[in-house]
C-alpha cells in the first residue's frame, strides 16, 4: 500500500488493521479509538463522516420563591385592565397550582374544572392529555376563575391562538426590579413543591405530562434537603406505605398450604 495518508487513514484500512493486524493485542480497542479520533484530522478525502455537533442542553427554569410569588400576585392586581388582571390570576393559579405552562394554560375552559370529593381537578388537553389535581392552596382561585369564565377560556377569552400566553405576558406592566411572570418558572415551582413534599415520581411524571425524569433531576438542586434525622427515617422505610412490587399482578398467587 502506498504510504498516502488518505489510504493509510481510510476507515476500512484502520478497521482491517485492528481486526487482522492486532488480532492478539489486548489493547486493540484503544488503538481503534485513537486512530478513529486522529484520522479525520489528518485526511481530507477519506470517507469519514463529519462529527455530530453537540447541542447545548436546555437549562431548566428556576422556580419562584414564596416571596417572589407574592410579588407576582400583587403586581397582577395592579394591572390596568380587568382582562390583564384576570390573565395574571389565571396564569399563576394554573402554573403554580397545576404545573400548566404555555402549552395548556390558555386552553382550559370552565367545563375542564370539576370536583371529586374535596379535590379540584383539571382536564388538561393534548399534548399529553391528562387529569391533574390542583394544589389545595390554589383550588379556590381556580374554582372562582371557572365560575366566572362563562363560555370563554379561564385565561385569554375566546382566543385559540397558540401564542396567546406569550401575547398576554408581553402586555403586562412589570415594575423595575420585580420578577417577570414566566410560565416555565411557574411550572418549575409546581414541580419543586411536589419534589419537596415527597410526591412519588411515577405520579408526578404523569401529572406533569413528562416523558421522563430528566427535567426533575435538573430541579433537585432547588429542593431543600431534609434534616438528617428525617432523611434517615424516610430512607429506613419503616413508616413508608407503598404497594408491593410485582412484575405482573396476575402472577401473584397465595402460597401453597404447608
Chart the SSEs and their pairings.
Layout: H1 5-8, H2 11-21, H3 28-42, H4 66-77, H5 82-98, E1 113-116, E2 119-124, E3 130-133, H6 136-147, H7 164-170, H8 183-197, H9 201-208, H10 214-219, H11 228-236
Antiparallel strand pairs: 1-2, 2-3
Helix pairs in contact: 2-3, 4-5, 5-6, 5-8
Could you characterize what this model shows?
By secondary structure, this protein is mainly alpha-helical. Helix content is 45%, strand content 5%. The chain has 11 helices and 3 strands, in the order αααααβββαααααα. It has a 3-stranded antiparallel sheet with strand order 1-2-3. Strand 2 and strand 3 form a beta hairpin. It is elongated, with a radius of gyration of 28 Å. The C terminus is likely disordered.
Task: Return Rg in Å.
Answer: 28 Å
The helix/strand series, from N terminus to C terminus, equals: HHHHHEEEHHHHHH
Helix- and strand-based class? mainly alpha
Strand order of the largest sheet: 1-2-3
The helix tally amounts to 11
Characterize the biggest β-sheet: 3 strands, antiparallel
Task: Explain briefly what this protein structure is.
The protein has 258 residues and is mainly α.
Keywords:
three-stranded antiparallel beta sheet; 258 residues; single chain; mainly alpha; disordered C terminus; 11 helices
Amino acid at each position: 500500500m502506498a504510504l498516502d495518508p488518505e489510504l493509510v487513514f481510510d476507515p476500512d484500512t484502520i478497521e482491517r488493521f485492528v481486526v487482522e493486524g492486532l488480532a492478539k493485542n489486548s489493547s486493540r480497542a484503544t488503538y481503534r479509538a485513537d486512530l478513529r479520533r486522529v484520522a479525520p484530522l489528518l485526511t481530507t478525502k477519506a470517507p469519514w463522516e463529519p462529527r455530530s455537533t453537540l447541542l447545548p442542553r436546555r437549562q431548566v427554569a428556576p422556580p419562584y420563591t414564596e416571596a417572589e410569588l407574592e410579588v407576582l400576585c400583587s403586581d397582577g392586581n395592579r394591572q390596568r385592565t380587568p382582562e390583564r388582571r384576570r390573565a395574571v390570576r389565571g396564569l399563576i393559579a394554573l402554573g403554580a397550582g397545576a404545573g400548566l405552562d404555555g402549552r395548556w394554560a390558555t386552553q382550559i375552559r370552565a367545563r375542564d374544572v370539576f370536583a371529586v370529593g374535596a379535590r379540584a381537578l383539571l382536564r388538561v388537553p393534548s399534548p399529553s392529555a391528562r387529569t391533574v389535581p390542583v394544589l389545595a392552596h390554589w383550588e379556590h382561585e381556580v374554582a372562582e376563575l371557572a365560575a366566572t369564565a362563562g363560555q370563554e377560556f379561564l385565561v385569554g377569552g375566546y382566543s385559540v391562538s397558540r401564542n396567546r400566553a406569550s401575547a398576554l405576558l408581553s402586555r403586562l406592566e412589570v415594575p423595575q426590579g420585580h420578577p417577570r411572570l414566566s410560565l416555565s418558572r411557574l411550572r418549575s415551582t409546581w414541580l419543586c413543591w411536589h419534589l419537596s413534599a415527597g410526591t412519588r415520581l411515577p405520579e408526578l411524571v404523569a401529572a406533569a405530562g413528562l416523558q421522563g425524569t430528566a427535567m426533575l433531576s435538573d430541579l433537585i438542586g432547588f429542593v431543600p434537603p431534609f434534616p438528617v434525622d428525617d432523611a434517615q427515617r424516610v430512607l429506613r422505610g419503616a413508616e413508608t406505605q407503598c404497594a408491593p412490587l410485582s412484575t405482573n399482578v396476575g402472577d401473584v398467587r397465595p402460597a401453597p398450604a404447608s
